[in-house]
Write the structure tokens for this entry.
Amino acid sequence: MKKKASPSARKLAAEKGVDIESLVGTGPGGRIMRGDVLAAAGGNTKAVDEIPLPEAAALSEESSYADIPVSPTRGIIARRLLESKTQIPHYYMEIEVDAGPLGQHRDSLNARSNTGKLSWNDFVLKATAEALQRVPAINVSWLGKKIRRHEAVHLAFAVAVEDGLITPVIRNAHLKGTRQIGIEVRQLAAKARDRKLTPEEITGSTFTVTNLGMFGIRSFYGIINPPNAAILSVGAIQQKPVINTAGAIVAGLQMTLGLSGDHRVVDGSTGASFLATLKEILESPDQIDL
């Protein structure tokens, strides 16, 4: 197999009469760089592990690049996610939801409404708040020597902005209907994109929902947003063949929900119970408070 080498390294090897296939590259993935050819051409017999790795700038010698300063927002996101991923023992599970009944329910409500339309996400957020009330063991925070169980559901949701993600918080989501949650989501999302959120609007969450379904992502797992004990990841609504109650294969709508849990405080059985409860609510949308 032909070894990987930068174009300039191959050109230099041809000029110096060096057999490039006999070299051991020090670049990324064993890529042969100009320095490797120069070392061979100069009779350098150092062991491979004694050859200094090329500096970062040398790795980009074949293409132009731009260094982008890290914004304060991106810096905070990077620090918090690194802390979450390295300090919280994540575990992951997912469940498929029959989204057909919810789709019909939503379309029926929107057809009769003269106000703003309800989105899929509005129902998912409200159903999540209800599921957290039914399975309160997941609406908790790990505080080292104690576990705090929250009576209220303060629901954070991810909003993409220019330099990262912001998670505004819907306060007391368990006390609000789907329409009110939808109104607040749109208001908070607009403020997030305009960078007008107050500190009170981005702190104090007890659970987070992140949705990439609008981008066509089928399933994924988010990184836990401390001090939350879990995060729900919502995938795209997909048309799939399903077996109906009569045993026939028909076209249906499926949605995949993923859960990342903090194993210090939320056991796998608790996470599974939460997902099963959320599935039950979404598949019986008439029980979701409007």
Summary: The chain has two domains: 7-59, 90-287. Residues 90-287 form a domain with the Chloramphenicol Acetyltransferase fold (CATH 3.30.559.10). The first helix runs from residue 7 to 16.
